[in-house]
From TrEMBL:
Family: Belongs to the galactose-3-O-sulfotransferase family.
Gene Ontology terms: cellular component: Golgi membrane
Organism name: Pocillopora meandrina
InterPro entries assigned: Gal-3-0_sulfotransfrase, P-loop_NTPase
Organism ancestry: Eukaryota, Metazoa, Cnidaria, Anthozoa, Hexacorallia
Keywords: Glycoprotein, Golgi apparatus, Membrane, Signal-anchor, Transferase, Transmembrane, Transmembrane helix
MF GO annotations: galactosylceramide sulfotransferase activity
Protein known as: Galactosylceramide sulfotransferase-like
Length: 220
């Protein structure tokens, strides 16, 4: 752990001592490349099915309450998607920045490009060059096994315990097909994260038998 924490040198951080960073932070190429040069680092991020991820973020961060759509997980979500909010409202509070395209926000896309399909596509292509591996939350076991391989770790290094899961009462009990489509329309940029998952498949391509064996061992 000591190697993962920057050391003090007089009044400044000696950032070149940092060897590992695992943090929920917004991607900023200039800052990250400075701290972790591309030629000596591995960049890993994670995405999730955009429909499920938005419902989770919306209710976990109580976005419906922030914008006055109530507290019911299902009804507030439907009301929010029906009415929407202006771009100027995305900075209303700390959580409101996640009220639209939360995954692409975390990956560094500027608000002004949220409805620009060409710009989004180009940004996804940029991300594909920046990241060595994109984990997929919907396939978490498979993802951590791929990360283990990429970082030359042991299986013990990627063991995990599931925590901080929402209670059923805090989840939208029913998401209709119409609501799912509205989520996709509202989060147009996040839908493009599906193409990032090809970096997930790229890591296992041609090594399926070995991967399956390791995965079975890990799960068991």
């Amino acid at each position: 752990m000591a190697d993962a924490i920057p050391h003090w040198t007089s009044s400044r951080f000696r950032w070149n001592a940092t060897k590992f960073s695992c943090s929920h932070t917004r991607f900023n190429k200039k800052a990250i490349n400075y701290l972790f040069p591309k030629d000596a680092s591995k960049y890993v991020t994670i995405v999730r099915n955009p429909v499920e991820q938005f419902e989770s973020t919306f209710n976990y961060m109580q976005i419906g309450t922030v914008f006055g759509f109530g507290t019911d997980p299902s009804e507030s979500l439907k009301a929010f998607l029906k009415n929407g909010i202006g771009f100027n409202m995305l900075r209303k509070s700390g959580s409101s920045v996640l009220a639209r395209n939360p995954q692409m926000f975390d990956l560094g896309l500027d608000f002004k490009f949220y409805q620009d399909a060409k710009a989004i596509k180009e940004y996804v292509e940029f991300l594909e060059e920046e990241f060595d591996l994109v984990l997929v939350a919907d396939y978490f076991d498979e993802s951590v096994v791929l990360m283990k391989r990429l970082l030359c770790w042991e299986l013990d290094d990627v063991l995990f315990v599931k925590t901080n899961e929402r209670l059923d009462k805090d989840k939208a009990t029913e998401i209709s097909d119409g609501t799912k489509e509205n989520i996709k329309r509202w989060n147009k940029a996040d839908v493009f994260t599906n193409t990032l998952t090809k970096l997930f498949g790229k890591e296992s391509k041609g090594k399926e038998k070995t991967f399956t064996t390791i995965l079975r061992t890990f799960v068991e």
